[in-house]
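Q: Given only this backbone (268 positions), what sequence would you predict?
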């Protein structure tokens, strides 16, 4: 097995540092005691973390974004399973058109989608509702869930399914106990990627969110339009900390490599 040389390791270290630098700067600025954005700082304070409690709209927006991301990602994954199995296994008229339809949100600017959804939801009575927000997010995260689920479905060994059928298993049992476990890495990684995109979505959500359905990214965007204090950096630092904690818990409980890559704990 070949190893990376010093030059490659140095390049990788610089690349990782370049990617992490903005996150580290945001976390450091969150601890400033000043009333303005200050970096670097020679004093440390939890002032702006305590200040989050004076703005309950940030907390409610966080839970709304969490619930929105989880629900839209779960529905997207549920749609992706039959779609990916049909595209991966069968050749039928309109297969390419169906694939292009599912992937089309990747090619349409979210600004255009936001305006289109605003007009459409207003006409059908879903304007400013949480249900409309969920439907819109399902559309934009579906390509991410489908792409990773499709990758797992294409590489699946169908002889295992045939063996289960030959032993008398019904179609539902084969799907539940054979097919779904085999594509589980794609489902988990697809859900995670869809959740991240839903949680971070701002451009489209600005158009279709009402004051009662504002998500955390939109709330932060609206706040920085009128304020320049480090409150938003403290909110961002809390989200980053929660994300890191969730990854650590998943890694300790199940193993991220097993969930996202599909490898067993012994490396097979």
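A: Predicted residues:
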């Amino acid at each position: 097995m070949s190893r990376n040389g010093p030059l490659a390791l140095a390049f990788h270290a610089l690349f990782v540092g370049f990617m992490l630098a903005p996150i580290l700067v945001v976390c450091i600025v969150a601890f400033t005691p000043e009333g303005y954005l200050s970096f670097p700082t020679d004093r440390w304070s939890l002032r702006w973390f305590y200040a989050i409690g004076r703005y309950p709209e940030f907390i409610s927006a966080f839970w709304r974004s969490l619930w929105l991301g989880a629900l839209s990602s779960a529905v997207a994954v549920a749609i992706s399973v039959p779609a990916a199995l049909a595209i991966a296994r069968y050749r039928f008229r309109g297969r390419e058109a169906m694939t292009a339809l599912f992937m089309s949100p990747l090619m349409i600017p979210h600004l255009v989608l936001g305006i289109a959804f605003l007009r459409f939801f207003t006409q059908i009575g879903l304007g400013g509702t949480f249900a409309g927000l969920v439907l819109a997010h399902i559309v934009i995260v579906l390509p991410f869930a489908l792409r990773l689920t499709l990758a797992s479905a294409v590489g699946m060994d169908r002889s295992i399914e045939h063996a289960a059928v030959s032993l008398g298993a019904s179609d539902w049992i084969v799907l539940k106990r054979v097919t779904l476990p085999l594509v589980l890495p794609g489902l988990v990684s697809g859900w995670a990627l869809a959740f991240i995109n839903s949680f971070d979505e701002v451009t489209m959500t600005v158009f279709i969110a009402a004051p009662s359905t504002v998500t955390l990214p939109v709330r932060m965007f609206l706040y920085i339009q009128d304020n320049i204090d480090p409150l938003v950096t403290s909110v961002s630092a809390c989200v980053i900390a929660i994300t890191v904690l969730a990854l650590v818990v998943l890694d300790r409980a199940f193993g991220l490599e097993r969930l996202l890559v599909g490898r067993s704990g012994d490396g097979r």
